[in-house]
Design goal:
By secondary structure, the protein is mainly beta. It is 5% helix and 48% strand.
Length: 337
Amino acid sequence: MAFTIDITMGGFGLKKKLFSIGRALMCTLTCSAIVTSAPAFAATEGAKEAAEPLTAQAVYATQPGQSTIIDIANKDGLRRLYTLVTPAVGNTAPHVVYKGAYQYAVDVPAGARQGDYQILFYLHPVKSLKTANMRPVGQVRLQVSRPGSLLPYFNNVGIGLDNAPLGANFDGSGNSYSTQQLAAAGLTPGKPVNFHGFHFTWPNDFPARPDNIIAKGQTIPLSGRGRSIGFLGAATNGNSHGVAVVHYTNGTWSTVLLGFTDWTMNGGLSVHPSFSNWAAATTHYRDSDGGRTNNHVFTYVFFTQVPVKPGLTVSSVTLPKTVYGGNLHVFSMAVGN
């Protein structure tokens, strides 16, 4: 399906075409600027660099059912023809609309799956675009997350694929959880996880994208009433603990001790988890930067809980700014009874 809208404004002839092709949406904008000539796009490396799109930021964030604006400029200041290739999100492709003044609106469907997606910029018209043989001149990351999601706070890639870890590095030494092993243990990407009466959501599996939080004093929005807050996580390079702060809607707060056991139980040397942790999932091997390893090192995702003030509604949690031991990682958290 394709349609064309011709617009004339301010001495510029604008032609916009929106194409929905398979699971990708392509938006082409043709701008005829008042200049005598423009350099050929592929003439020299310098011309390619000059034509590189400049965006206000590298990551754009929005929610399902909402939109975000992408601003585009060029190193040489000239107007260019670009093709924006956006991925399908959920069952519907995002809708790209040119707003004028180098601004594109990316509308995300209400049923979109949360996660990180690339938006690629090409210098070629859609009719000649063969993405398998062409390199984009630029890209930005579109981050789609639901209200209350931890996705915007993830800062570590801890889960990889057995055949392609793609930069997953949970412990700082190139080792990571196996997506396949975690799924076999009940932690499926993007799916609910019920453990000890808490209702968690396991992070979506986007290769080479952050999927957990290394605690560094971040304040994370969290809403709910209950007797405690549950966490799914683990420590790396030894057990780890620190002081977290629970904030309430009435303006008060309370401090709690948050601790996790090392994800390999210290290489199998520990007999029992620490900090009253429970093993929520156990895997029989881990991945390295070269793929699946057969070193028989078991890995664990642990559950722990901390108390909250009775009768109050939680508004957010500040993770420990200072930890003792290794690094403290959080995959998911929830208020429960």
